[in-house]
Amino acid sequence: MARVETRAIKKYFGEVRAVDGVDLAPKDGEFIALLGPSGCGKTTLLRIIAGLETPTFGEVLIGERVVNDLPPRARGVAMVFQTYGLYPHMSVFDNIAFPLKTQGVRRELVRGKVQWAARMLGIETLFQRKPRELSGGERQRVALGRALVREPSVLLLDEPLSNLDAKLRASAREELKHFQRRVGTTTIYVTHDQVEAMGLGDRIAVMEQGKVRQVGTPEEVYDQPADTFVATFLGTPPMNLVERAGEILGFRPENFLPTEFHDVQDNLVEFCLRLTRAEYLGSERILYGVLEGRGSDVRVAAKLPSNFTKPFQEGNRYLFAVRAKDVSCFDKGSGRRISHP
Amino acid sequence: MEFALKQARAARFRYVLDRRQTLGPLLIAPAILYVAGLVAIPFFLALYYSVSGFDIVHLRLSFVGVRNFVDIVQSSIFRQALANTFVFTIGSQVLAMILGKTLALLLLRDFPGKAIVRVLVLLPWAVPVALGTMGWKWMFDSLYSVINWTLQAIHIIGPESWPQWLGEESLAMISIIVVHAWRMFPFATVIFLAGLTAVPSDVLDAAVIDGAGFWRRTFQVILPIIAPIVLVALLFGTVFTFTDMSVVYLLTRGGPTNSTHVLGSLAFQVGVLSGDIGRGAAISLFLFPMLLVAVVALLRVLRRREI
Predict the structure, then answer these.
(1) Does A85 contact B at CB distance below 8 Å?
(2) CA-based nearest distance B203→chain A, Å
(3) What is the ipTM for the molecules in this complex?
């Protein structure tokens, strides 16, 4: 295990700034999720840490040592790829054993180590199979086994769950988290799926256009987004943004409820909402509406638990409110969060 | 009533090409006719000639059994040509494969002038064999050899010790192998290039991360993955070379003293130039059973290796 750090990493592809000055320092043993829309530079950053790309500027440190000039194999990193990158002509056993063989590990030791990794992932029975004979979930585990068998100092995961179907993804997510806790390897996990990032990450780094917008625990990035991008990237539906008095107010749909639903003692910010559409989703109801005010109308959404059964009529106006402490304020020009005293 | 019937009949002809049973045979017919007319008939004719005493003096189709085959096996020129065919085929294939693989790896990278290099690489393949080989003939010429001239200019050989590329037995063999490999390697390059670009980049990246160096990546990851496609190229190249005579005929005509004859050129000389058609057919058919076995075996290996 080791500390990983990137210092002011920049990567330009011609005119395109894929990564534009990223400082990232996961703690030892931490699971950090790199979250961002596609094309935000998160995979490029991961590949730079792995040594598959060279940064245009900046330094990568692994275990207090600058590794910019070291090839991937000298960095002690392991990586799981989006399509797993299993060797199609090798059996599962040979796939997992491959990184050990390249390191010249003695044959007697290889067997034991491969078995250790396979047992942990529950794939010992698949040793003789070829990758094409495996299901998506099994492939993903073999790829993970191959990454972990040589006990890397850093584990890099590039959207490893994106090729699994939705049901399998949920269980694989849980396994992955459990597994990472057990081996305690510093892990950087790239994803565009906020649920994965929230569920897996000890901390989340939200990236956009090559820059890290915010690093924080899932609670921090969700409840106190650093800017309007983070505010609207996380959450379904995303945070409502309403311009008022030269600032942008942001509040989550689940905090935006009919006034009578709130405690009267709370300090409330009230809005008049004209309901345009209501969606019933089983466990919750989502109400879409328009805040009619000066200038243009603002579209907002409210998320109501379904045990709140009051009927709503599309086209009617209702009073909705949010507690003042649930409101985030952003600067109108920069979009950065303003913390009021 | 009558009108409707007429219409139905018209429709039957109008949509005749929409029917699979009609269109399919119609489309495949030219290929079948072509193969039958230009491959099958000559092939069976050759089979028959090989067991007959047919020659251009006595135009009679007398059955002589395996006499032609016995005769040619007893001839030392034939045995030499048979050995030459193997040396020529294996030598030129190995050379073409190594050149092709190296060049394909080079062409995978980006460098200035890559487009021009790609065109130049394909040139030996596109140039008519006679033209290309004439060029080589001049380069190997005993008086005007640009190769010898260069070697002398950089003081590797003296003016008295010019190698006679096409005049010495072993050098002549090397020369025809080099020229044939030169003709074949663009094809090998294209095949390797297609194979290499088909290897998923995640697999290559994984191999780099897993600590495999260049040689291990090449021999333990890339080559096994592209093996099926390389085997096909090798198969075509081998069969093509076994039956080819153009380079030999244009460059050495089998000389000096029959030392570079391959079965193709010998069959041409005996069967066409000397007019002993029966024996010529026997020579050219000699390798057919072996090639057939080789082709079937390779195709089997291929099917099993599919990944």
Answers:
(1) yes
(2) 4
(3) 0.84
Contact yes or no for B176/B166 (Cβ under 8 A) = no
Q: What is the pLDDT of residue B305?
A: 61
> How many interface pairs between A and B have CB atoms less than 8 angstroms apart?
66
Residue B25 lies in a domain: no
Q: How far is CA A194 from CA A93, A148, A191, A221, B100, in A?
A: 34, 25, 8, 11, 47
Candidates B203, B213, B224; nearest CB to A85: B203
The residue segments making up the domain with residue B263 are 77-306
Half-sphere exposure of B79 (CA within 13 A, CB side): 6
pTM for this entry:
0.76
User: What CA–CA distance (Å, rounded) separates A136 from A134?
Assistant: 7
Q: Is A50 on the interface with B (CB under 8 A)?
A: yes
So what's the pLDDT on residue A1? 54
Q: B153 Cβ partners below 8 Å, 6+ apart?
A: none
CATH code for the domain of B258: 1.10.3720.10
CA–CA dist B143, A271 (Å, integer): 100
In a domain, B109, yes or no: yes
> Which two structure tokens, joined as six digits, stand for A7?
């210092």
Point out the least confidently predicted range of A45-54, A252-261, B48-57.
B48-57
Which one of A94, A98, A114, A149 would you mutate to disrupt binding with B, by most B Cβ within 10 Å of its Cβ? A98
Task: Say if CB A83 and CB A174 are below 8 A apart.
Answer: no
Which residue in this structure is represented by tokens 């005929």? B249
Q: Which uninterrupted H or E stretch holds A157?
A: strand A154-158
Task: Give the range among A2-11, A213-222, B47-56 with minimum mean pLDDT.
Answer: B47-56
How far apart CA A282 and CA B79 sit, in angstroms, is: 86
Amino acid present at B85: T
**Whole-angstrom Cα distance, residue A118 to residue A276?**
54
> Which of A77, A79, A113 is the best mutation test for B, with the most CBs of B within 10 A?
A79
**Residue B90: its pLDDT value, please?**
92
In a domain? residue B131 = yes
Residue A114 has pLDDT above 70, yes or no: yes
Q: What is the mean pLDDT of residues A7-27?
A: 91
A86 to chain B, any CB pair closer than 8 A? The answer is: yes
DSSP per-residue string spanning B79-90: HHHHHHHHHHHH
CA end-to-end distance (rounded Å), chain A: 41
Least CA distance to B201: which residue of chain A?
A: A85
In a domain, B159, yes or no: yes
Angstroms from A202 CA to nearest CA on chain B: 25
The list of chain B residues with pLDDT below 70 reads 1-2, 304-307
Distance CA B249, CA A143 (A): 56
pLDDT by residue (tens digit) across A227-255?
999 999 999 899 999 988 888 999 999 99
Reported residue count of chain B is 307
Give the residue from chain A lying closest to B226, CA to CA.
Answer: A89
User: Are the C-beta atoms of A92 and A142 separated by less than 8 Å?
Assistant: yes
To test the contact with chain B by mutation, choose from A13, A81, A90 the residue with the greatest count of B C-beta atoms within 10 A, namely: A81
For B93-153, give the DSSP string.
HHHHHHHHHHHHHHHHS--TTHHHHHHHHHHHHHS-HHHHHHHHHHHT-TTT-HHHHHHHH
**What does DSSP assign to residue B199?**
S
For chain B, the domain total comes to: 1
